[in-house]
Amino acid sequence: MNNRMDKSYSTLLFKMALSFMLAWQLQVSTPARPYVAAMHAAREAAELNQPEQAMLALQAALEFAPRQPSTWLQLAASSRAAGDLQTAINAYEISSRLEPLNSMHKAELADLYLLTGDTRSASALLAELAQDPHPDARIFASLVALQKQDGDMDLARATLMEWVAAYPSDASALYQLGILTSLEDPSLAITSLARAAEADSQYQSAYDTLEPVLADLDGGNPAYRLVMAGRALGVVNEWEMAARAFQSAVEIKPDYPEALAFLSEAHFQTGSDGTELIEKALQANPDSVIANAIHAMQQRRQGNPDIALAALYRAARQEPDQGIWQLEIASTLVEMDAVAEAYPHFKQAVLLDPQNVQFWKALAGYCAATGIHLRDEGLPAARKVMMLAPDDPDSYDTMGRVLAALDDLENAVRYYQKAIKMDPALASSHLHLAQVYLNQGKPQLALEHLALAQSYAFQDPETLQTATRLMERYFGQP
């Protein structure tokens, strides 16, 4: 660290020599008190929100008074504001040699290390800050994130315990502790997750999903229970811990096809290649429903719907009474442009599970999009959706789509408006209503709802893409 600081010091002195040559830009003259003049220029630049000029002025000042720690701190702040993160880091490090940094400045330096990818220096500084009598919760949060990134789960757990001890009601700390201890200490995990849900309702769903599985984790058939725990962790999008659960199951039972398949998916979800694992799962049991379903999902994701279709047919043969496989087959056929061939599978899905509103929505949406069996199947399907889910705004959107496809635009508008009244942030209904208004020659109303669709579609990329395309086509706006 000392060699690095010496190098940083030399680099900055060189920069300051160059900046002094630009003194005329800063109105810094070299007569009597150049340090005072440079500092005055720095203050003026800061007041005018000109961080680059402030940085140059402070560098000029430091040429005359290089042992002023407060000036180095000002240089660090102005450099960061100007986007020169390395100069800011160097300034903080030099200031620390002259006078110890306080906790706030240490935290700022740690943040700069993180921004520039120096995780080792950041970890060391954050660990030091965590030992303060009253450390900020953000220090713990950053430190845990780095420890997880480094794969040191034991150290992350210890830091989380310190975090919870310092902030007993911090929902984020409690939730992370619950997740991290879910496999090795289910009782502590359940307690932590319950406290997290009590402190912040956003964690209630995760608690409801994980609690029954973790409560049963110490029972018989450990490999199976680990797979169930991993599935639950995947449902709440905690894929790294899910991968650990599946890996433990595979270590207990190496030829367990479902564990191998789920581990493959966990690898994909965390950015690794799970191809070998899914292939091993299918070799262990070519008829495994779960392995075929995961294989199909991965192949569709990779743009191979034909391979996915074969896997889905295998799953459907094993579970002929499950409508979900018929729906997935239908969706894959549509993806392959085999639109007409998809219809009997959409129809079979609703016949197998006539109370499943999602299946009826899929059938109605298919008919609306393709025009196939629109009046005799699409319209009754939309009515069935309305009957099964009368309080769901998406039910009204589904009926609107079918009516628009039937060219009943006035009634389509009415249903879309009802959906939006129930949920003003329903981006799909804003888009569909805008499309009807365009067909009716009402551009101003269409523009209004396209803009709303764009603003609400941050989690709906397909709607966002369509709304943006229509904005550009009809209104020349991005």
The CA-CA distance between the termini, in Å, is 49 Å
* Helix and strand sequence: HHHHHHHHHHHHHHHHHHHHHHHHHHHH
Structural category is mainly alpha
Mean pLDDT metric? 90
What is the total tally of β strands? 0
What does the radius of gyration come to?
Answer: 30 Å
Shape, principal axes of CA atoms: globular
Sequence stretches where pLDDT stays below 50 over 5 or more residues: 16-32
Largest sheet: none
**Can you count the helices?**
28
Describe this structure in words.
With 478 residues, this protein is an all-alpha fold. The protein has 28 helices and no strands. α5 runs antiparallel to α6 (85-98) and α16 packs parallel to α18. The relative contact order is 0.03. Residues 16-32 have low confidence and may be disordered.
Show the helix and strand layout:
Elements: H1 2-21, H2 23-26, H3 34-47, H4 51-64, H5 69-82, H6 85-98, H7 103-115, H8 119-130, H9 137-149, H10 153-166, H11 171-180, H12 186-199, H13 204-215, H14 222-235, H15 239-252, H16 257-269, H17 275-284, H18 289-301, H19 305-318, H20 323-335, H21 339-352, H22 357-370, H23 374-388, H24 393-405, H25 409-422, H26 427-439, H27 443-456, H28 461-475
Helix pairs in contact: 1-4, 1-6, 3-4, 4-5, 5-6, 6-7, 7-8, 8-9, 9-10, 10-11, 11-12, 12-13, 13-14, 14-15, 14-16, 15-16, 16-17, 16-18, 17-18, 18-19, 19-20, 20-21, 21-22, 22-23, 22-24, 23-24, 24-25, 24-26, 25-26, 26-27, 27-28
Q: Which key phrases capture this entry?
A:
78% helix; 0% strand; 478 residues; mainly alpha; 28 helices
